[in-house]
Design a protein that fits this description.
The chain is α+β, with helices and mostly antiparallel strands. It has one domain: Alpha-Beta Complex (Peptide Deformylase), CATH 3.90.45. The protein is built from 4 helices and 9 strands. The strands form 3 sheets. The chain has a 5-stranded antiparallel beta sheet, with helices on both faces. The chain has a two-stranded antiparallel ribbon with strand order 1-9. The longest helix has 16 residues. The chain starts with 5 loop residues before the first strand and ends in a 9-residue tail after the last strand.
Length: 188
């Protein structure tokens, strides 16, 4: 296992639809193990394959809820259905999210409260998970990565403007930028 560099916004692999995983083999298992190690080192609660430069429809997640229950797994070739978005004002704290490919930044973003995730696990078995709250947010965020969408692409004004300024200031937004968790950490 190895910690892999995480691509920074602007890298083309982050902004294109990822390819279906054709086969679960030892190479894919190594990729998943590396992604899990990278996610924990970052630290994060989810990581999609495009974030480590691999254009495949695959993500890993690991999050412990308020009751101490660990929700962790691998989603290969996932499908995601979501409930309608809630209406009303954004809660800047409760709806704030960040992204390992836009390190050190957090902005509020409206997400569906409930989702249904269908995916294949590393064992080759199809699974179905109904999720609500933060786990639903994690699934939506990681699934977006597989379609070439970053949370920054979904931000409303003025947050989209504020993040665009940060991206310009840090000279992000182009190909070839990455960070290695534990080495190139960015302070918020």
């Amino acid at each position: 296992m190895a910690v892999r560099p995480i691509r920074i916004t602007g890298d083309p692999v982050l902004h294109e639809r990822a390819d279906e995983v054709a086969e679960i083999d030892d190479d894919l298992r190594r990729l998943v193990a590396d992604m899990e190690e990278t996610m924990h080192a970052a630290p994060g609660v989810g990581l999609a394959a495009p974030q480590v430069g691999v254009p495949l429809r695959l993500f890993v997640y690991s999050w412990t809820d308020d009751d101490g229950v660990l929700h962790a797994g691998t989603a290969i070739n996932p499908e995601l259905w979501q409930s309608p978005l809630p209406i009303g004002e954004l809660d800047d704290e409760a709806e704030s999210e960040g992204c390992l490919s836009i390190p050190g930044e957090r902005f509020p973003l409206r997400r569906a409260e409930r989702v249904l995730l269908r995916a294949t696990g590393l064992d080759g078995e199809r699974t179905e998970i109904e999720a609500a709250g933060w786990l639903a947010r994690i699934f939506q965020h990681e699934y977006d990565h597989l379609d070439g969408v970053l949370y920054a692409d979904r931000l409303a004004h003025p947050h989209s403007r504020d993040l665009a300024k940060v991206i310009r200031k840090r000279s992000w937004g182009g190909p070839g930028r990455s960070r290695l968790p534990g080495v190139d950490d960015v302070e918020p």
